[in-house]
User: Fold this.
Amino acid sequence: MRELFNIFWSFLKIGAFTFGGGYAMIPLIQYEVINNRRWLSEREFVDLLTLAQAAPGPIALNTAVFVGYKERKYLGALAAVLGVVVPSFVIILLVAIFFNNIRQNPWVDAAFRGMRPAVVALIVAPIVGLTKGMHWALIAVALAVALAVWYWGISPILFLVAGALVGILIAAYRGKGVER
Amino acid sequence: MIATLLQLVWSYLKIGFFGFGGGYAMLSLIHSEVVVRNEWLTNGEFSDIIAISQMTPGPIALNSATYIGYEVAGVLGSVVATVAVCIPALTLMMLLTRFFLKLHNNRYVQSVVVSMRPVVVGMIMSAALLLIFPHSDDGRSFIDGWSWLIFALALLGSAKKINPILLIVLSGIAGIIIYWPQ
Assistant:
């Protein structure tokens, strides 16, 4: 029971201080899980990151499930996920209730007019890093997906499934005669 | 009411299940469900949620689930959408963790991850396109020259690794000064 609470508490801290999401929180998780609680070794942590990025869903959530499950099976995973979700849930619910009333306020409106282009910049910024070192044909695929989703409103799910199928086919083709 | 709740659950199960590539890649998926399909939000409101999400803790998928759930169906809606977005990660990651060592070096898993990468990058690009060139005039991100100036400065700041929360706050202050209410 105490261990379950520790899992919940650690991930509550992680959930409460992960501003900006995703990669920004990796150092925090690293500190909590490796140095503070000693739930994972450095090596296991690297494996965890690979897995958390390969699986769908937010990295914070995936990490929570991995560590919680490893320590205390299903209940551990549940305790960790609750820990991650609760701070974000409470804060956003308060914002949603509050924001509804102040959205029409001219000052708030002015602030959001300023913030919208910055939001777009934050989305554009990582694209440069991600396409660096990518083969031009793959960049062309990425552009085609972007156009299809943006211009024709095709659901990105379709392309994700197609991408996964291509990956399976390539692996099956390469595997022939190489292994076994 | 029940129909709306079910639609929320279905949309956020999809977002949770197909949310590969983390935060920004999930945006185009969330946009496709929330703005295009169900029309729960306009483009402008969607952009506002991203800004709010940057300033509050937690992953954007969770933040948007809680926020949109509340907008669409009150507190019950926010609980339902938040739980729904967690379910795929919870079940899939639990399975992956169980078979972790067996799967880790599996060539199928690695090949799938590699071939999905251009799609994930494309999804981030489309999220940017959707906000720069929206299909309707409702809630544009760029309204005048100032918008483009803020965009350029924020892009520069982001390249210089300035904290995104700080960038959002600064641009909000810039917005108040530029669009000073009369």
